[in-house]
Amino acid sequence: MFNGAWQANRCAFAFPNIGVVVLEYIAGEPIGDLLSNSSTELRQKTLNNCGLWLRKFSGDHLSYSNFAPKFWLKLLDCRKPEIIASKNDQGLLNRLREFMATHVNVISGQKTIKGPTHDDFVPSNLLINNDILYGIGLQGETVLPLAKATAQFLVLLKYKRSNSNSDLMHGISRQDCQSFLGSGILPVSEINTILPFFIAEQFYFHLQNAVEKHVLDKETRQEITVFLDS
Known about the structure:
Layout: E1 6-8, E2 11-15, E3 20-23, E4 29-30, H1 31-36, H2 40-58, E5 63-66, H3 69-78, H4 87-102, H5 104-107, E6 111-117, E7 126-129, E8 132-135, E9 142-145, H6 146-157, E10 168-169, E11 172-173, H7 174-181, H8 188-191, H9 194-212, H10 218-229
Helix pairs in contact: 2-7, 4-9, 4-10, 6-9
């Protein structure tokens, strides 16, 4: 991915004996900053382009497997949170996990598309420079369901001046979701099944981290509640 409209920064040096990789420096505007101050038209075009970047990155290495939601629930439970003083916040975490658990029987065994992903596919790890979209910080590349990478991007996107309004899709601006998903990154069969499962997971992690770092705000609580009540 070193030519064309979607690129990744190159590996400049590698020192495997000490586990160090040096990646090429890319100058550009982080997508998160661009989206925070963009027009609606530019925002939607940019979100579609981000989905196309992930499609390009996954390339010809896509595969299908039977989805195993219980595996992801076990991983979730392995993250032992600090003691959460607020009963309301603990209640939200419990509800998010319950949301995931109630979907297990419905989506277990469903075909899901997997491929190489960034593993930290968030707006701050995408840069735009001269109409070229670069992915950076790729040392964590791993094969995962593309629905997980999509959910991670969309949930973090909410905190970059999301087009929040009453027209939501899985707790995210419908317009934002449709622009990103319009890239064709996910099969239609996963959009209302596996994708909301991973959106709940990402909300869980975001809420847990915010509570532990004492940066949780009222808006975040409300957005998660809206997602759960929808």
